[in-house]
Design goal:
Layout: H1 2-12, H2 16-19, H3 37-41, H4 49-64, H5 68-81, H6 86-99, H7 102-115, H8 121-130, H9 140-156, H10 161-173, H11 177-190, H12 196-207, H13 211-224, H14 229-241, H15 245-258, H16 263-275, H17 279-292, H18 297-309, H19 313-326, H20 331-346, H21 350-360, H22 372-388, H23 392-405, H24 410-419, H25 423-436, H26 441-453, H27 457-470, H28 475-487, H29 491-502, H30 509-525, H31 529-542, H32 547-560, H33 564-577, H34 582-594, H35 598-611, H36 616-629, H37 632-645, H38 649-669
C-alpha cells in the first residue's frame, strides 16, 4: 500500500515550484482545528487490515471518478480499521487538500509525519499547503512554516535537488538572499544538467541592480544548459544594460537557433548589430523581416538607422520621411522624426536638423516626468546643431534650459562658452563645479581645456595630471593633456603622455585611434610630417575606411603643396565614406587650390563654408582663393572672419598679416 501512495504523491508533489501550479486554494495561516463531532462519536472498530485495504481501494476508485466526498468517506473508514497507518493519513491529507479543507489536510499530514518520521512526503505536502500562492496578499508566516518543513526535508533527503530548489525560492521570498543563493548553489551541484538555480540567482542580482554578478551567474547557467532560452534571453538584456551590444550578438544568434528564428529576436539582433557598427548585416536581416511585414514601422525605423550608419543618407531620409508623413503624431512617427533629424545631422544639413529637433520639442507630452529624458536628448541634438552652425548664443540658451533639469549637463554649457570665447563665464562655471567635485572627469577636462584656451596652460595641465593619477585608464585624459601641452609648445611632453597612454591595454579601437590621431598631430606641429604620415598609414592598414586618417594625410600633403594628385585621391576616399563632411570638403578644395585648379577649388571651398559655417580655417582658405583671383574685397571679408574666429595665436597672427597685406593693396587701389 505504501508504495502506491508514495508514487502518487511524488507525481503530485515533484517540487515546490510545480506544486504551486496545481492548487487553486488561497494560502492563509491555518486556523485552529475545529471540533469534528462525527469523528468523536464514531463507533470504535476492531483493527482489520483487510477491511482497511478494501475501503482504501473504494476510496481510490471514487477519487478516479472525481467523487471527492465519497473518496474521503471511504478513506476515513479505511483509517478506522487501521488508525496507525501513516500512508492512509497521507492519502487523507491529499484528499482534504484537494477539497480545499486545509485544516484537515494539515492535521493528517502532521499525523503521517509523526507516525513515520523518515517519510519525506508529509513534509512536501505541508510545505505545499503553507506556501502562499501567487496573488496572495499575505503569507510571510505561511512561507516561514513552509521553510521549516523544507528544512526538515533537507535533513531527511540531503541529496534531493528538489528540496534545495524549493528552499531557494522560499528564502528569496522571505528576503534571505544569502541562504537562497546557498540553496540554489547546492541545487546546481545535484542537478548539473539544468540552469534553474543559476538562473534564479542571476534574476535576483539583475533585480538588485548588480548586473556584473547577474551576468556571471547567467553564464554559469549557460555552461550547464547551453540551449536555455530563458538564460540566453536574460543575458542579452543584461548586456544591453551594460551597453555591451557587441557581446550580445553571438548570444542573440544562439537564441535564434533555439527559438527557430523568432522574428522578435531577429529584430533585437539587428538593433545590437546597428549599435555595434555592423549595420551591413543588420540591413540584410531587416530587409528579410520586411518581406513578411512590409508595413512594420518599427522595422522600417531600424532599417533607416542602419542606413544612416552605413552613410546611405539619401535612402535613410526618404524612408524616414515616408514614415513621418504617414503617421506624424504616433510613437513611431515621433521616433522616425528623431532619426530623420540625426540623418540630416550626419549629412551636414544642420539647418534641417535644427527644424526637426525644434519641432520634436514642441510636443507638450515631453513635459511629463517619464518623457523628460527624451526632451533632454532632443535638446542636446538641437544645441549640437547650433554649435555646428556656430550659432553659439542659441546653443547656450538651450543648454541653460537643459541644466535646470539635468545639472550634470553643466559641462556642455561650459564648453559652449569656451568655444564662443566667453572665457570669463566658462572659467567661472568651470572653477565652481571643479571645486565642488575635483574627481569629475568631464568637468575637469572642460575646465582644463578652457584654461589652456584662455592662456593658462600650466593650470590646465595640473588639473589633468591629477585626474590621470586617479584614472590611469581614461584615454580622454591622455589626449586632452597632450593637446594642452601642444598649446604650450611642450612637444616632447605631448608625445610622452600619449606614449604612456599607448602602454595601457586598450581593447577599444576608438581609444587606440584617438591616441594615434593625437600623436600624428604632435608630429605635424613639430613639422615631422613623415612620422605623422607613417603613423596614419599604419592606422589605415587595420582600418582602410578610416575617413579621419585618409583626410588627415590628404590635408597634410595639400597644405605643404607636395604630391598634390595623391592628396586629392586621399581626400576623395574620405569623402566617399562621409560625403557631407565640411572639413573634408575644405581639404579637397584646398588641394585643388594648390594644384591651381581654381574652378574646383572655389566649388569645394564654398560647399565647405555652407556646411561648416564660421570656421577660421575655411575662411582663411576662401580669403586665399579670392586674393589669388583678384577679388580683394571678398578676400578682406574672409580674412577678417578668420581672424575673429581664430583660437590658435600663431595661426591667427599669420592670417592677420595676410589681412594687412590685402588692406594695404585696397588702400593703394583706392
Amino acid at each position: 500500500m505504501k508504495s502506491s501512495i508514495v508514487r502518487s504523491l511524488r507525481c503530485y508533489l515533484p517540487y515546490l515550484g510545480l506544486i504551486l501550479m496545481s492548487v487553486s486554494a488561497p494560502a492563509q495561516q491555518a486556523p485552529s482545528k475545529p471540533i469534528n463531532i462525527d469523528r468523536e462519536l464514531a463507533r470504535d472498530v476492531t483493527p482489520d487490515r483487510a477491511a482497511s485495504y478494501y475501503h482504501f481501494a473504494l476510496s481510490k476508485q471514487a477519487e478516479d471518478e472525481n467523487d471527492l466526498a465519497k473518496a474521503i468517506s471511504e478513506m476515513e473508514t479505511a483509517l478506522n480499521y487501521n488508525p496507525d497507518s501513516s500512508s492512509i493519513h497521507m492519502e487523507l491529507a491529499v484528499l482534504f487538500e484537494k477539497s480545499g479543507d486545509r485544516v484537515e489536510a494539515i492535521d493528517h499530514a502532521q499525523e503521517a509525519a509523526r507516525l513515520d518520521p523518515k517519510d519525506p512526503d508529509p513534509h512536501w505536502l505541508l510545505a505545499n499547503i503553507y506556501y502562499p500562492r501567487e496573488g496572495a496578499t499575505s503569507g510571510n508566516d505561511g512561507t516561514t512554516k513552509a521553510i521549516q518543513e523544507l528544512e526538515k526535508l533537507r535533513e531527511l533527503s540531503p541529496d534531493d535537488e528538489r528540496t534545495y530548489a524549493a528552499l531557494g525560492e522560499a528564502y528569496f521570498r522571505t528576503n534571505q538572499p544569502e541562504k537562497a543563493i546557498q540553496a540554489y548553489e547546492k541545487y546546481q551541484t545535484l542537478a548539473e544538467d539544468t540552469d534553474k538555480g543559476y538562473l534564479e540567482i542571476a534574476k535576483y542580482y539583475a533585480n538588485a541592480g548588480n548586473t556584473d554578478k547577474a551576468v556571471e551567474y547567467c553564464s554559469k547557467g549557460l555552461a550547464a544548459q547551453p540551449e536555455s532560452a530563458e538564460s540566453l534571453w536574460l543575458l542579452t538584456q543584461l548586456y544591453s544594460k551594460q551597453n555591451k551590444d557587441k557581446e550580445s550578438i553571438p548570444v542573440y544568434k544562439k537564441l535564434l537557433a533555439v527559438t527557430n528564428n523568432n522574428p522578435q529576436i531577429r529584430r533585437q539582433l539587428a538593433t545590437s548589430l546597428i549599435e555595434s557598427d555592423q549595420s551591413k548585416e543588420a540591413v540584410q536581416i531587416l530587409q528579410d523581416l520586411l518581406k513578411t511585414g512590409p508595413k512594420d514601422k518599427k522595422i522600417q525605423i531600424l532599417l533607416g538607422r542602419a542606413q544612416i550608419e552605413l552613410r546611405q543618407i539619401p535612402e535613410a531620409i526618404e524612408l524616414l520621411q515616408s514614415i513621418v508623413q504617414s503617421d506624424p503624431k504616433s510613437q513611431e512617427g515621433m521616433e522616425a522624426r528623431f532619426y530623420l533629424g540625426t540623418a540630416y545631422e550626419r549629412n551636414g544639413e544642420f539647418n534641417e536638423a535644427v527644424t526637426i529637433f525644434s519641432s520634436l520639442l514642441e510636443n507638450p507630452g515631453l513635459n511629463a516626468d517619464e518623457e523628460k529624458p527624451n526632451r533632454i536628448i532632443f535638446q542636446q541634438h538641437l544645441a549640437a546643431n547650433y554649435e555646428e552652425l556656430r550659432e553659439y548664443e542659441k546653443a547656450i540658451a538651450v543648454y541653460q534650459d537643459v541644466v535646470k533639469a539635468e545639472p550634470k549637463m553643466i559641462s556642455r554649457l561650459i564648453n559652449i562658452y569656451r568655444l564662443d570665447h566667453q572665457f570669463d563665464k566658462a572659467l567661472l562655471l568651470g572653477k565652481q563645479n571643479y571645486d565642488k567635485d575635483p574627481n569629475d572627469i568631464r568637468i575637469g577636462v572642460i575646465y582644463a581645456r578652457t584654461l589652456g584656451d584662455a592662456g593658462k596652460p600650466k593650470e590646465g595641465i595640473e588639473i589633468l595630471s591629477k585626474l590621470l593619477q586617479s584614472n590611469p585608464s581614461k584615454v580622454d585624459l591622455y589626449v586632452n593633456l597632450s593637446a594642452i601641452y601642444l598649446q604650450d609648445k611642450r612637444y616632447s611632453d605631448a608625445e610622452k603622455i600619449l606614449r604612456r597612454g599607448q602602454e595601457k591595454k586598450l581593447d577599444d579601437e576608438g581609444d587606440r585611434d584617438s591616441l594615434s590621431l593625437q600623436l600624428a598631430s604632435v608630429y605635424e606641429k613639430q613639422k615631422d610630417f613623415d612620422r605623422a604620415e607613417s603613423l596614419l598609414k599604419e592606422m589605415l592598414k587595420t582600418k582602410p575606411d578610416n575617413a579621419v586618417a585618409l583626410n588627415y594625410i590628404g590635408y597634410m600633403l595639400a597644405d605643404r603643396g607636395v604630391r598634390l594628385e595623391e592628396a586629392v585621391r586621399y581626400v576623395k576616399e574620405a569623402l566617399a565614406i562621409d560625403p557631407r563632411n565640411g572639413a573634408y570638403l575644405d581639404s579637397l578644395g584646398w588641394a585643388f587650390f594648390k594644384l591651381n585648379d581654381l574652378g574646383n577649388a572655389e566649388k569645394y571651398l564654398l560647399e565647405a563654408d555652407k556646411i561648416v559655417k564660421n570656421d577660421s580655417t575655411v575662411d582663411e582658405h576662401l580669403g586665399d582663393y579670392y586674393f589669388k583671383t583678384g577679388d580683394l574685397q571678398k578676400a578682406e571679408d574672409f580674412y577678417k572672419k578668420s581672424v575673429s574666429l581664430g583660437t590658435e595665436p600663431d595661426e591667427t597672427a599669420k592670417v592677420r598679416r595676410k589681412l594687412e597685406t590685402v588692406q594695404e593693396k585696397l588702400r593703394k587701389k583706392k
